[in-house]
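User: My advisor asked me to double-check a structure prediction for Redoxin domain-containing protein before group meeting. I don't want to rely on an old file, so could you generate it fresh from this sequence?
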Amino acid sequence: MAVTPPVCDFGTPAPAFDLPDPDGNRFTLSQLAGPNGMLVMFICNHCPYVQAIIDRIQRDAAALQELGIGVVAISANDVTEYPEDAPDRMKAEAARLGFTFPYLYDETQDVARAYDAQCTPDFFGYNADLELQYRGRFDGSRRTAAEPDARRELYEAMALIAETGQGPREQVPSMGCSIKWRS
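Assistant: Sure, here is a fresh prediction for Redoxin domain-containing protein from the sequence you gave:
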């Protein structure tokens, strides 16, 4: 079922986290935050909305890192019901795509709850003070990728945040598969 998260609540502080990657290496928000901001993405392997843009996510994440934006992806899905989202599969997906950012596993789902993540993908863009400035979509893609020349909404918003500390006031919410919560 497709889910649309709420609009950006400007200024909300980024919840701290301490999560492992599939190899057990732990990462915290403070370690990953860039000098010009932070992008926290809730994604997973199986979601068609994520798969439609995953190559673009990697492209734009690398470009944002060059602008001093820290980037992290987090998967919080219940891997008992969705084994394709398990850490070993996350590791393979990150390697296949050449992720330039950590792909972390939120086994307890506490971090997803702290962020109020609703769907995959769900994007949270923070300024250098780790205040929320963007909670919008990646681009015009849905279950299939938008045209190759589609406006890069997430990239443009994060570049603006890196430059000014403020996100755009007009944002279109992301849409995707619901987070697969444990029963």
